[in-house]
Amino acid sequence: MRILAVKLSDLGDVLLCEPALRSLRTAFPDARIDVLTTPHAAALVPHFELRLEALTFEKSVFDAPGSAALRSSTAATRLAWQLRSGDYDRVVLLHHLTTAWGAAKFRALARATGAPVVAGLDNGRGGFLTHPAIDRGFGFKHEVEYMLDVALAAGGKRVDAEPRYAATGEALPFDLPNTFIALAPAAGEFSSARIWPLEHYEELADQLVAAGHELVVLGGTDAISAGEQIVDHIGAPNARSIAGQTSLNELALVLKRAAIVVGNDSFPAHLAAAVGTPALALFGPSNPAAWAPRSARSRALTLDLPCSPCLYTGYRLGRRAGCPARSCLTQITPAVALERTLEMLGA
Fold it and tell me: To which CATH superfamily is domain 2-153 assigned?
């Protein structure tokens, strides 16, 4: 048995597919399972510990119909050859068919494999699927559950729906406090509208330090500037920043040692939940019913205004940049975030 699971997305989205991949491995213990994903997200795959092989493809080649990259690149042709030579029995599409172009590209990808079984989410655009799972729109159920539905349609087994990441090793290239709260003030490239104001993070940091906590600011290179500003505002030794200084696995190890992580709707919140650390994720335009950190110890903090969420709702992408005011996020006060953080810590 040879299975191809497709998730051409960023780190957080791929991490939320771990239960679906575990479902497939549980049902097909001897199968070869390949995961087609982006080069950046491929680093996650070994840490699922499911004996998966990662295949990589730069998804930007497929991002827009008729794009110059697609017309001029040999990457798509090379991918088609690779998929055909994989001799796959089943293709598992871990994506929504949100746009007509998206449906067309995944139809072409599935056809390139020649696999007799193609499982995926059907929102009315999935006529090419042989084993559909019903897509009732973003937020009708969590993304983890949707991806599990697809795995089950492909013959997978029911497993628990909390993503897992196995953080390996213990040594880190820097010292950490014995007990600390992690702050994750960035949100990746997809939507800056998900970022809680920096001055709110500074005020929250003030209040956490006043309550006796030490802070570590973390994230990718996009969090470096915010980390420096928070540390400058608080001062050593109560706060330090390791933003942009960690590998994927080092980030997981730091999050595993944290008492809690407080941050935006972003990858660190999902990774914290996957290593067993409570995560408090601040949601504004984006949809917590679809994307909240998935663990019993984690929470989404949202104002739940009548106009929110406006990103990933129903069958549409929605407003990637939110509205100019972003009241749903900016009006989450540091006092409320502090109260929820201390509540989750059991203080």
Answer: Glycogen Phosphorylase B; (3.40.50.2000)
